[in-house]
Amino acid sequence: PMNYEIYDLGNIKLLSGEVINSARLAYKTYGTLNSNGDNVVLLPTFYTGTHKRNEGFFGPGRAIDPNIHFIVSVNMFGNGLSSSPNNTPSPHDGPRFPLVTLWDNVACQHKLLTEHLEIKAIALVTGWSMAGCQAYQWGAQFPDMVKAILPFCSSAKTSHHNLVFLEEVKTALCADQNWNEGNYILPPIKGLKAFARIYAKWAFSETFYKEKIYKKLGFNTIEDLFVNWENDHIENWDANNLLAKIATWKANDISFGPHYKNDIKKALRSIRAQTILIPCN
Asked: Can you give 143-190 as a three-state secondary structure string?
């Protein structure tokens, strides 16, 4: 059974000028909008996340609480639930899926919130990794609407070091002959496994491995962790979806688009939301 809602966006024109026909945003809400409309917490999704994975970030008695807040969890384009390479009809299917920037994601999320859910203000936008990048994006793109942002382990612009990592996992995936330039019949299993193993280095810290914290997660060895990551990527991720979101991540820059014309300092200065940044080590 489908445990989330679909908002039909119609044909959306992207920042690149390309159009996605019959675009859709998958989302889920928790809690109730209060009479003042000032208890909205927006949770975008992270790179390999869905609204389901976001459920780990809130709960009764916690900082974000569905008994107090109206939580809107929105799936990023390319994650398999919102419009993505694997569910978009020709001519934008598979490897022909266009570049969707975080500007495009946030513009569509804004439409969902204002036109469909009739929300006028957002108390908080927060998230980890690419979800945090969307928190920055919201702060810059709609500064009047966002009261606070809390990005953790995120950036307002993808760094060169981050780009190197993205090229690393992308190259590993695309080296599988079965990938076939994205026109695969069967999933490129070898590529997905290589992708997962490289990603496992980045998802956790040096300390995590040195202090064998993976044992607390139920893995006896690092190899057990690798196999778990391989299986997760094979079972849950379409290769073209992973690549589409890498393109989005590489293009992450809150000054990209019509408002700031690549002036990152201007974009950062425009954020009026109360801001708490949580880096990671």
From this structure: CCCECEEEEECCCCECCHHHHHHHHHHHHHHHCCHHHHHHCCCCCCHH
Q: Are 78 and 241 in contact (CB under 8 A)?
A: yes
DSSP string of 32-80? ---TTS--EEEEE--TT--HHHHGGG--TTSSS-TTT-EEEEEPPTTSS
What values do phi and psi take at 183, rounded to 5?
A: -100, 50
pLDDT, averaged in runs of 10, over the chain (281 residues): 90 96 97 97 97 97 98 98 97 97 98 98 97 98 98 97 96 97 96 96 92 96 96 95 98 96 97 95 68
Q: Which two tokens stand for residue 175?
A: 């080296």
Residue type, 39: N
Written as six digits, the tokens of 24 are: 């859709």
Q: CB of 177 within 8 A of CB of 195?
A: no
**How far, in Å, CA of 98 to CA of 100, rounded?**
6
The rounded distance, in Å, linking the Cα atoms of 14 and 247 is 14
Task: Determine the pLDDT at residue 280.
Answer: 79
Within 10 angstroms of residue 136's Cβ, the number of other Cβ atoms is 28
The size of the chain, in residues, is 281
pLDDT (0 to 100) of residue 1: 55
Q: Are 109 and 133 in contact (CB under 8 A)?
A: no
Would residue 276 be called left, alpha or beta, if left means φ above 0 and alpha means ψ between -120 and 50 degrees? beta
